[in-house]
Design brief:
By secondary structure, the protein is of the alpha/beta class. The protein has eight helices and ten strands.
Amino acid sequence: MGKSQFGIDEETLRMVGQQIKAVKESGVEVAIVVGGGNIWRGSDAAATGMDRAAADYAGMLATVINALALQDALEKEGLVSRTQSAIPIQSVAEPYIRLRAIRHLEKGRVVIFAAGTGNPYMTTDTAAALRAIEIKAEVLLMAKNKVDGVYTADPKTDPTAKKFDRIDHRQALNLRLQVMDATAFSLCMENNLPIVVFDLNAPNSIQRAVAKEAIGTLVFTGVEA
């Protein structure tokens, strides 16, 4: 949503598209999970009295809107992309099929996973972890909005909070650090999937994260990735 309070920002879409293009040109396969908080937040709607499952399904549909907007931005950069939805919407997206997604990646296409896991009560963090494990991704990149890594506390409210450059999964769990949703974090830890948490708004952030530059926080298990 860029600098706006809601909606889709064209400049942000273009920036992401250009970075994904640069990453693809370096020979890296890319799959993307999008959230929908710029349009709808299921947890907020549920807090006002809306049925939680209904609110979450609405949030999943918001991710489909974002996925289609991102797909358009990627196509404008000359990239071939496919959107796969966990909720069947055949007119605008393919159904999520793991082997088909892997085949798209092998053919050099960018795959966008929409509608989360297709289940209420599951966050897009969990969807990202699950899809990354299913397609055997080497790393999960968590692009945040104005959050440049993992801290000992919330840096927005605690001026003494210190940032980690790298941290082990188990250490992060023991310190109760809010890296991501607990279910998603457990999936990553159990499957030895490293996570890089970084600020999307930092210059060339996605490219730098892929190139293993010192950006954000690396969360790993055992031997450092």
